[in-house]
Amino acid sequence: MASNVNPTVRRRRLGQELRRLRELKGMTAEEVAERLLVSQSKISRLENGRRSISQRDVRDLCGVYEVEDHRIVESLMQMAKDSRQQGWWHSFGDIPYSVYIGLETDAASLRVYDPLVVPGLLQTRSYAEALITGALPEAAPGDIDKRVQVRLRRQERISDQETPLRLWAVLDEAALRRAVGNEQVMIEQLEHLTEMSQVPHVTVQVIPFTMGAHPGVSGQYAILEFPDAADSSVVYIEGVTSDLYLEKANDVQKYSVMYEHLRAQALNADQSREFIANVAKDYAR
């Protein structure tokens, strides 16, 4: 298969197909686990694409589901093989949010709300370095540099000539006022944010403090949508020790509606650019 196959997305598609076969058979994950003498959590992780799927796993599951069409079995086996390939991010070693990077790499659009900091895809190098250093006070310099390099590499999705990522970012005013690094770092970051907001497929909106309470006070989240209709949208919520991925249609719908309220209450794109420019002037004084 082509080397550009995204292993994260392959695992996810394969997991969805395995779940479909299980449901067609009318079996629960617990019943399948008992048949294969494995834990129920393993079946769940295989179906949600959070762990690698071996060809043996696929063969065993197809046996339980009594899949008789050898073409289907072979196709699923090939998907399992593809899912074990490494994405570009694996060259950087162990990245805690590698699953998210895999999804982001294949996404067609990303809607993100951040109440505290500028989103990673819109950060400058100096801002990213200062932010990661402050967020991870015990991290070694080499680890910080690795994280910065990964962040900058992720930004290439925005400038991709063939399939650029459609990015919509809503920021709370606090993300602009929080002084990450020194004044010069913030001025450069806000100028970069203004520049990026003028890219045709990038929209930046700001919710000022004067708006008061709004639907985003519960915290940061992102909604990823994919070009293939077979890939359901995902809501991503970053955590300290683990991340949360919501894929149920009802959950995604609730977060999507909340995002529409955020966009409606935020300043429009032109007003937001002016607002960001004024905050930059405050740092320059």
From TrEMBL:
Domain (HTH cro/C1-type) ranges: 18-73
Database matches in Gene3D superfamilies: lambda repressor-like DNA-binding domains
GO molecular-function terms, A-Z: DNA binding
Domain of life: Bacteria
PROSITE patterns reported in the protein's UniProt record: HTH_CROC1
Protein name per the record: Helix-turn-helix domain-containing protein
